[in-house]
Design goal:
Layout: H1 3-18, H2 20-23, H3 36-45, H4 49-61, H5 67-77, H6 82-95, H7 103-111, H8 121-130, H9 136-140, E1 154-156, E2 167-168, E3 172-174, E4 186-192, E5 195-200, H10 201-204, E6 209-214, E7 217-224, E8 229-234, E9 236-237, E10 240-241, E11 244-251, E12 254-259, E13 265-267, E14 273-275, E15 287-288, E16 291-294, H11 295-301, E17 306-308, H12 325-329, E18 349-353, E19 363-366, H13 367-372, E20 375-380, E21 383-389, E22 395-399, E23 405-408, E24 413-416, E25 421-424, E26 428-431, E27 436-440, E28 443-446, H14 447-453, E29 458-460
Parallel strand pairs: 2-6, 5-17, 19-29
Antiparallel strand pairs: 1-11, 3-17, 4-5, 4-16, 6-7, 7-8, 8-15, 9-10, 11-12, 12-13, 13-14, 18-19, 18-28, 20-21, 21-22, 22-27, 23-24, 24-25, 25-26, 26-27
Helix pairs in contact: 3-4, 3-8, 5-6, 5-7
C-alpha cells in the first residue's frame, strides 16, 4: 500500500514472530496440537525454541505439497527471523527451488501451479492473520468452500481493516471554492442523475474508497492505487445497501473490499463477493460510469460540479502527486502477481472493457493508442461500441449499434458517416432527432493488474 504504511508493515512483519510471545492470544498456551495445520501454527504460537524446532522437524518428516503455501506464509511474516530462514531452507530442500528469502519468487512458484491446500487451510490462514487484526479471522475461517478465488493467492496488503480509511459521506464543495486545485490536476469524475461530482486523485489516493449518495443513489467508489483502477458501483443490490470497506487484503495485486454485515470479501474489479457467505447468492453491484480527466476539463464540462473538500476529517498531505509518489515513479510492482505480460509496461494505462453479455471476452485498449485515435470503434460478440477520447486522454464508451462515426471534436460533438451530429453527454450520446445511445460502463487500469485478473484478455495497442 502507501510507502509510509509499507514501512509500518515491515515492522509488523518482524513483530508477528518476534512479538507474538507477549502480544497475541495465540500465545496463551504452550501445549501444542499435533494436527498438520498446527505444525505451522505452533511455530508462531510459542516462543520456545525447542517447541519451534520440534514443529519444524515434524513438518519436514511429514512434508507434502499442501505444506508449501503455509511454509511460505510463515516465512513471509518471519523472514527476518531465524524461523523464517529455516523455513526458507526447508522449502528449498523439499521443492528443489533456490529462491532463498525472496518470497515474491516463492509466491510466483506456488501460484503458477494448481492450488494445493489442506482441507482446513482456511483455519490456518485465519489464525495466522488475526494477530494482525482480530477482524481478519472472520474473512477466512470456515469459508474455504465459499470461495470463488484461490485462497492461497489472497495476500495481506500491509494494513488493518479500513487501515486506509474510506471517505464516508465526505464533504463536497462547489467548484468555485476548490482553490486548492489546479486545472491540470487529475480528478475522477462521475455524474449520476445529473449530479456531477469530482474526486481528486490527490485526495482519493489516501483513502482508496468513498461511500456516498449521489443523484439519490447510494454508491461505492473504489480506487485500487496498486492496479490503477477507479470503479463506481451502485451499493444497493435487490434492496440491500451494502456498506463496503477496505479489507486490507489483495488478490493478484487488486484490492479486496469487504461488506460490514457479513465480512465477506469482494472483488474490486467485478463488484461481487468472492469469499464468504454471500458467495453464490447472485449478488453483484451494478457499474456506474467514471472518467479520469483533469480538473480544468471536468469543470468546463460541468460548471455546476461539486468536488471533495480538503476537510476530510483526516490529517494527510493532500498535495498533488504526494501519495504513492515512489510507486508511480517506476514500473516496479509493490505486490507481485503470478505472471506479468510484456506486451505493455506493467503500469501502462489501458481502457478495460468487459461487457455483461460477453464476460468471457475481456478487452484492453492501450490509452496511448486511443490518444492517437480519438474515435475508435469495434465489437465484442454482437455488441458494437465506440470510444471517444478527448484532449486530456479521457475515454468515454457508448453503444454504437448500427452506427459508424468518422469524427469527434474531442469535446461534446461527434459525427457519424451519415453526417448526423451527436451530442456527447456523460451518460449517453444523442442526435438532433432524439435518438439516444447509452454509455457503456468501463474504467482505466494498469495493464499488469487487468492482465493478471483476465489472462486471456484481448489487447489493442
Amino acid at each position: 500500500m502507501l510507502q509510509r504504511i509499507k514501512k509500518v508493515s515491515l515492522i509488523l512483519f518482524i513483530g508477528v514472530l518476534a512479538g507474538l510471545a507477549t502480544t497475541s492470544p495465540l500465545q496463551a498456551q504452550e501445549v501444542l496440537s499435533d494436527s498438520e495445520i498446527h505444525y505451522f501454527l505452533n511455530i508462531v504460537r510459542t516462543s520456545s525454541r525447542a517447541a519451534q524446532e520440534k514443529a519444524l522437524k515434524t513438518i519436514e518428516k511429514n512434508w507434502k505439497p499442501e505444506f508449501e503455501i503455509m511454509a511460505l506464509e510463515v516465512m513471509y511474516f518471519g523472514y527476518s527471523t531465524d524461523v523464517g530462514l529455516k523455513m526458507a531452507l526447508l522449502l528449498q530442500k523439499k521443492t528443489g527451488q533456490n529462491f532463498g528469502l525472496d518470497f515474491n519468487k516463492w509466491y510466483e512458484y506456488v501460484w503458477n501451479k494448481e492450488q494445493k491446500i489442506l482441507p482446513d487451510y482456511d483455519y490456518f490462514k485465519s489464525q495466522l492473520h488475526k494477530s494482525l487484526d482480530p477482524k481478519f479471522e472472520q474473512y477466512f475461517q470456515g469459508r474455504q468452500e465459499n470461495s470463488l478465488i484461490r485462497l492461497d493467492e489472497i495476500r495481506w496488503g500491509g494494513v488493518q481493516q479500513d487501515g486506509i480509511p474510506p471517505l464516508r459521506n465526505p464533504t463536497m464543495i462547489p467548484a468555485n471554492r476548490a482553490n486548492y486545485l489546479e486545472d491540470d490536476h487529475i480528478v475522477f469524475g462521475i455524474e449520476v442523475n445529473g449530479d456531477a461530482r469530482a474526486y481528486p486523485k490527490r485526495i482519493l489516493a489516501w483513502h482508496e474508497m468513498f461511500v456516498d449518495e449521489v443523484g439519490g443513489i447510494p454508491v461505492t467508489g473504489v480506487y485500487c492505487t496498486l492496479c490503477g483502477t477507479v470503479i463506481l458501483y451502485k451499493s444497493d443490490v435487490n434492496g440491500t445497501v451494502h456498506q463496503m470497506g477496505t479489507s486490507g487484503f489483495l488478490y493478484r495485486s487488486n484490492k479486496l473490499m469487504y461488506d460490514q454485515a457479513t465480512q465477506s470479501l469482494w472483488s474490486t474489479l467485478e463488484g461481487k463477493p468472492v469469499v464468504g457467505p454471500l458467495v453464490g447468492k447472485g449478488i453483484q453491484m451494478d457499474y456506474l460510469s467514471v472518467v479520469t480527466t483533469t480538473w480544468g476539463e471536468w469543470k468546463k464540462r460541468h460548471p455546476e460540479t461539486q468536488v471533495l473538500s480538503l476537510q476530510t476529517g483526516y490529517q494527510r498531505d493532500y498535495g498533488e502527486g504526494v501519495a504513492y509518489q515512489a510507486y508511480f515513479a517506476d514500473d516496479n510492482l509493490m505486490f507481485n502477481v503470478p505472471t506479468v505480460d510484456g506486451k505493455l509496461k506493467n503500469k501502462q494505462s489501458i481502457l478495460a472493457i468487459r461487457l455483461p453479455d460477453y464476460p468471457e471476452q475481456p478487452l484492453a485498449i492501450s490509452v496511448k493508442y486511443l490518444k492517437k485515435n480519438p474515435v475508435y470503434q469495434s465489437t465484442i460478440g454482437e455488441s458494437r461500441f465506440v470510444v471517444f477520447t478527448d484532449k486530456t486522454g479521457a475515454n468515454r464508451v457508448y453503444d454504437a449499434t448500427h452506427l459508424n462515426f468518422k469524427k469527434y471534436d474531442q469535446y461534446t460533438k461527434a459525427t457519424d458517416i451519415r453526417g448526423e451530429t451527436w451530442t456527447v453527454y456523460e451518460d449517453r450520446i444523442e442526435n438532433a432527432s432524439g435518438e439516444i445511445r447509452p454509455r457503456i460502463h468501463t474504467f482505466n487500469a494498469f495493464w499488469f493488474g487487468w492482465q493478471a485478473a483476465y489472462p486471456d484478455t484481448k489487447l489493442v495497442k
